[in-house]
Design brief:
By secondary structure, the chain is an alpha/beta fold. 41% of the residues lie in helices and 16% in strands. The protein folds into two domains: 133 residues, Aspartate Aminotransferase, domain 1, CATH 3.90.1150; 243 residues, Type I PLP-dependent aspartate aminotransferase-like (Major domain) (Aspartate Aminotransferase, domain 2, 3-Layer(aba) Sandwich), CATH 3.40.640. The strands form three sheets. The protein has a seven-stranded mixed sheet, sandwiched between helices. The protein has a four-stranded mixed sheet with strand order 1-2-3-13. Strands 11-12-15-14 form a four-stranded antiparallel sheet. A hairpin with a 4-residue loop joins strand 2 and strand 3. The termini are far apart. The structure holds pyridoxal-5'-phosphate. Pyridoxal-5'-phosphate binds next to helix 6.
Length: 422
């Protein structure tokens, strides 16, 4: 429990020293309280409330909050050596690189570690340009790759970009899913094509049948590198270890982040094949990061990979994902005026609302039901569900009941009828 005084000090600090507009948004969304503890899918607030977290940190908490095995691995590493001296060989870094290199399909073999998703994307973009000696980067509409300059240059939301233009040159956008537009754009000047196999912030969008397979062929033909951003959809979330595996393709580079640190430490990675890795094979200082691959973060990631296997979470995501999508379809039928459609893969699901005006109200009502659910950044009409992969069926069902209650409140609030026309 925090005292009234401590809470006021935190609120004051947000307003005056941290981020006043974020503070207003958090208050307005109904989340308001101060988090003090979290375990599994549950987040505890200082005022005694207990929230069920079905947003899962947008993919961070695939193993739940504070998984004891990850916490223990980090503690153990903390006692041994938290930071690398940088000039010696590092065991946690080496083990993690070997583990990921073995897990990744095809010839994806080499790893570089960073501290966040956007840094992984920056590294991948640099590798693609340098390895091919070309500059053109192609990205897709609605993509989200992060907010540093390179990643933002490949992010398909103008609102994040407009006030900081110009971004990097030679970045071109094509519509997600439009293979002919892609074919027309990829040429002998193209260094790489970057995309998420399942778009997260774009509104939980799946690629049309045959799209990724054909894209792989086009990239191979033009010798452009295919970069799969698995930062949100990777690490088992969609029911395969990496989402692109649903379509049987292997990219030249892939980026990981979010869940890689087991929900305990920040870490990102870029993993590539020998061709993509030529810049780093030639020059160890082609790309560097002071804190990237630090022993604490690598220890957390190694524990996370153990859990993925031991708890059979890839399979679990697939099974529980079916349950989640079935329940969401039922709600779609129950609330036809509010929900336009629902979709997803594994435990990465989105509920597309029929009108944007329902989004804020629904998030607010979910918060009133002590349920964390949020809309996607590029597409506010879509409420996303990304619960821990090890969530129990009971907790997930409970969360969906709370979601149904929130939908009922929104229906009442907007005086909506039972049919589409009302
Ligand atoms: N790529 C994808 C697909 C993401 O979803 C995100 C974050 O939401 C990023 C990149 C950026 O990651 P970070 O916020 O850790 O920089």
């Amino acid at each position: 429990m925090l005292s009234e005084q401590s809470i006021s000090a935190i609120e004051h600090a947000y307003k005056e020293h941290y981020n006043p507009s974020l503070y207003r948004l958090i208050k307005f969304s109904g989340f308001g309280g101060v988090e003090v503890k979290a375990q599994g899918p549950w987040v505890y607030l200082s005022d005694g409330r207990k929230f069920l977290d079905l947003a899962g940190g947008y993919g961070v908490f695939s193993f739940g909050h504070s998984h004891p095995k990850v916490v223990a691995a980090v503690r153990e590493q903390l006692d041994k050596m938290p930071m690398s001296a940088k000039v010696f060989l590092s065991e946690p870094q080496a083990l993690l690189a070997a583990r990921l290199g073995e897990m990744a399909p095809g010839d994806l073999q080499y790893c570089f570690f960073v501290n966040s998703g956007t840094e992984a994307v920056e590294a991948a973009l640099k590798l693609a340009r340098s390895a091919t000696g070309r500059s053109k980067i192609i990205y897709v509409s609605n993509a989200f790759h992060g907010k540093t300059f390179g990643s933002l240059s490949a992010t398909g939301k103008d609102a994040f970009r407009d006030s900081v233009l110009p971004l990097l040159p030679d970045f071109f956008q094509v519509a997600f899913g439009d293979i002919e537009a892609m074919r027309a754009m990829v040429d002998e000047q193209t260094a790489g094509v970057i995309l998420e196999a399942v778009q997260g912030e774009g509104g939980i969008n799946l690629p049309p049948a045959g799209y990724l397979e054909e894209l792989r062929k086009i990239c191979t033909e033009k010798q452009a590198l295919l970069i799969a951003d698995e930062i949100q959809c990777g690490m088992g979330r969609t029911g395969k270890t990496f989402a692109f595996e649903h379509w049987g393709i292997v990219p030249d580079l892939m980026t990981l982040g979010k869940a890689l640190g087991g929900g305990v430490m920040p870490i990102g990675a870029v993993i590539g094949n020998p061709k993509a890795w030529t810049p780093l094979i030639k020059d160890p200082f082609f790309h560097t990061s002071t804190f990237g691959g630090n022993p604490l973060a690598c220890a957390a990631a190694l524990a996370a990979l153990d859990i993925l296997e031991e708890e059979n979470l890839v399979q679990r995501a697939s099974e529980m994902g079916k349950f989640l999508l079935e329940k969401l379809s039922e709600l779609e039928r129950q609330f036809p005026r509010i929900i336009k459609t629902s979709r997803g893969l594994g435990l990465m699901a989105g509920v597309e609302l029929s009108e944007t005006r329902f989004s804020g109200a629904l998030v607010f009502e979910m918060a009133r039901q002590n349920l964390v659910g949020v809309y996607t950044l590029n597409q506010p009409k879509v409420i996303r569900f990304e619960p821990p992969l090890n969530i129990s069926r009971e907790d997930l069902a409970e969360g969906l009941e709370r979601f149904a209650l929130a939908l009922t409140k929104v229906k009442e609030l907007f005086k909506l009828g039972d049919n589409l026309s009302e």
